C-alpha cells in the first residue's frame, strides 16, 4: 500500500512539473507589454522554424505595420523566406479587457486568444499551415516577452493532437519613428 501511494505522489509531482509557467507568473516583470503601443507603427522580425528534432527548416524576415484605433488593431505581416518565397498575414486584434485579447487572420482557424501580464503575452491559436501541397491545422502557443521599448522575443510551440511538431523563434525590433 505504501509503495502504491509513493507512485501516485511521484506521478502527480511529475504532472505538476509539466504544467509550465502561467502568464500570471510575469505580472511584476517590466517593462509592461501594451500591444497597442508596441505593435503600432513599423516593425521588423527575424525568425527560424525548427522541426521536432531541432533542425532549422526555415529562416525568414517579416516587415510589419501595426495600426490601432481604441481597442482594435491591425497588424500586417509580410514574410520573406530564405528561399525567396513570400507570404502575408493580416491580424485583426481586439483588446477584450485589461489583460485579454482576441484575434483573427485569414489562415487562423477560429479565433486566437491571448493574455498579457507584465512583460509577457501568451497567444493561442490554430493555424492552417501548407506543407507539400496539403494544409494542416496546427496548434500554436506563442510566448512573447518585451525586453525593452524596441525588442521583443517570441517562442512558439507547434503541435498536432498533443504531439510536438517543432517551434518558431522570432526577434522583433520596433523601428524608430
| Rg for CA atoms | 18 Å
Overall pLDDT score: 92
End-to-end CA span: 68 Å
Main-sheet strand order equals: 1-2-3-4-5-6-7-8-9-10
The number of distinct β-strands equals 10
Instruction: Please indicate the percent range of residues in DSSP E strands (runs of 2 or more).
Output: over 45%
Quaternary organisation of the protein chains: single chain
Q: Main beta sheet: strand number and arrangement?
A: 10 strands, antiparallel, barrel
Description:
With about 180 residues, this protein is mainly beta. Strands 1-2-3-4-5-6-7-8-9-10 form a ten-stranded antiparallel barrel. About 10% of the residues lie in helices and about 60% in strands.
In brief, what are we looking at here?
The protein is mainly beta.
What tags apply to this protein structure?
177 residues, mainly beta, 10-stranded antiparallel barrel, 2 helices, 10 strands, 60% strand
Outline the secondary-structure elements.
Elements: H1 2-18, H2 35-38, E1 41-51, E2 56-69, E3 72-81, E4 86-95, E5 100-104, E6 108-117, E7 120-131, E8 134-146, E9 151-160, E10 163-174
Antiparallel strand pairs: 1-2, 1-10, 2-3, 3-4, 4-5, 5-6, 6-7, 7-8, 8-9, 9-10
